[in-house]
């Protein structure tokens, strides 16, 4: 009988490990693990797929345990496998999950990632100038200008914040795009941009209903008591120009918990009627890869570590659901605005055109 030798066995384990740790692509690590049993053992036992994920997304170090969920029903129940120890089976499980996570973070569909607007630090006229308006890319909705406006301030250095919920508890975010608002109905067509912008990603401190529990500007002011921010971007200068400005993050960011805060730093434009500084935003857009339903997280209190949940069988359904739901989930506020638009169209067809609605702030400028 022919004796077959694995030439890789001739390498010292330390040398093989050093070679494998030079790989920076998960597909290369998976292929290497298929070359020989020796390398497969090194890849799994040394957690190389996990280390690769940690290099790309350092906040994964807060994973307390891993749960694998199997869609195949056994006696009517889903199979669940949990890992928090370092035995052989858990090492294999970690390899599967982290290898899949690295693959998903680079291959799942890119899309718009904002699910809903949560709260703004201030709003001049609510709901006419609500943060919800920033979800719509159109200039006009129901024959009115669509934008969010802060309250006016005497000092130009007073910041504002906008907080959003993303479509998934785990999203790989590449860029955030913002379009400042140009008041085409005011003299000189002023643009109410900020001087600079900064982004924070994180999660809620405690389980709560975002719609009912976060109401009013006082809650946005206490963001430190409400949210945990796991990533803060550098400041990006914002141009005082009316176009969708692209702010690409230095590296892709894994948002754990699905919360985004947009910090608008500094004001550049006074309103002529009251000599106050305002910041106004027409549209906010987040581009990234949602990782649900293949991945989810459960935040643990009070450590703020989290359980990473993985469903390998959700891979195909992820791609299909992203296509079906593009560009974003329809919100109740969006439906309400569509109803208003349809009513106005019906009125126009009947000849009942309401005068004085075009191109106006929610209130007359003199009332600011």
Detailed description of the structure:
The protein is of the alpha+beta class and 368 residues long. A hairpin with a 2-residue loop joins strand 1 (63-74) and strand 2. The longest helix is centred in the N-terminal third of the chain and has 20 residues, at 88-107. It has helices spanning 13-21, 26-35, 37-45, 48-56, 88-107, 210-213, 217-221, 223-226, 315-325, 332-349; strands at 63-74, 77-83, 111-112, 114-120, 140-141, 144-145, 148-149, 160-166, 170-180, 194-204, 227-232, 236-237, 245-256, 259-267, 269-270, 277-278, 280-290, 295-299, 306-310. It folds into two domains: 10-107, no CATH class; 111-291, Jelly Rolls, CATH 2.60.120.260.
Determine the number of helices (DSSP H or I, runs of at least 4 residues): 10
What is the name of the CATH architecture of the largest domain?
Answer: Sandwich
DSSP strand content: 25-35%
Mean pLDDT level: 80
CATH third-level topology of the largest domain: Jelly Rolls
Say how many strands there are: 19
Structural class based on helices, strands and sheet pairing: alpha+beta
The largest pleated sheet is described as: 6 strands, antiparallel
Q: Nearest-angstrom radius of gyration?
A: 25 Å
What low-confidence regions span 5 or more consecutive residues with pLDDT below 50? Answer: 73-77, 321-334, 353-368
Shape: elongated
Organism: Cucumis melo (Muskmelon)
Protein name: F-box protein At4g00755
């Amino acid at each position: 009988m022919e004796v077959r030798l694995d030439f890789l066995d001739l390498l010292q384990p330390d040398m093989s490990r050093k070679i494998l740790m030079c790989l920076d692509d998960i597909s290369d690590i998976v292929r290497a693990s298929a070359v020989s049993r020796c390398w497969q053992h090194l890849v799994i036992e040394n957690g190389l797929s996990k280390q690769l994920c940690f290099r790309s997304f350092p906040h994964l170090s807060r994973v307390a345990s891993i749960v694998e969920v199997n869609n195949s029903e056994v006696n009517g129940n889903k199979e669940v496998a949990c890992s928090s120890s370092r035995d052989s089976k858990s090492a294999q499980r970690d390899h599967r999950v982290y290898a899949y996570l690295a693959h998903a973070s680079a291959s799942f569909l890119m899309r718009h990632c904002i699910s809903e607007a949560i709260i703004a630090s201030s709003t001049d006229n609510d709901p006419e100038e609500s943060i919800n308006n920033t979800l719509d890319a159109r200039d006009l909705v129901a024959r009115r200008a669509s934008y969010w406006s802060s309250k006016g301030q005497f000092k130009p250095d007073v910041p504002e914040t906008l907080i959003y919920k993303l479509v998934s508890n785990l999203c790989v975010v590449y860029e955030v795009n913002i379009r400042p608002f140009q008041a085409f109905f005011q003299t000189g067509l002023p643009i109410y941009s900020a001087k600079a912008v900064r982004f924070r990603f994180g999660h809620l401190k405690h389980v709560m209903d975002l719609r009912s529990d976060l109401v009013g500007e006082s809650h946005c002011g206490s963001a430190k008591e409400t949210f945990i921010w796991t990533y803060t971007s550098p400041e990006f200068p914002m141009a005082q120009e009316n176009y969708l400005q692209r702010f690409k993050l230095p590296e892709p960011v894994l948002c754990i918990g699905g919360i985004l805060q947009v910090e608008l730093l500094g004001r550049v434009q006074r309103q002529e009627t009251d000599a106050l500084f305002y910041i106004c935003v027409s549209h906010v857009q987040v581009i990234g890869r949602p990782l649900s339903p293949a991945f989810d997280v459960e935040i643990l209190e009070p450590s703020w570590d989290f359980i990473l949940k993985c469903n390998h069988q959700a891979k195909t359904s992820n791609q299909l659901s992203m296509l079906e739901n593009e560009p974003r989930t329809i919100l109740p506020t969006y439906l309400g605005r569509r109803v208003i638009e349809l009513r106005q169209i019906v009125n126009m067809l009947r000849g009942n055109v309401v005068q004085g609605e075009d191109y106006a702030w929610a209130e007359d400028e003199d009332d600011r």
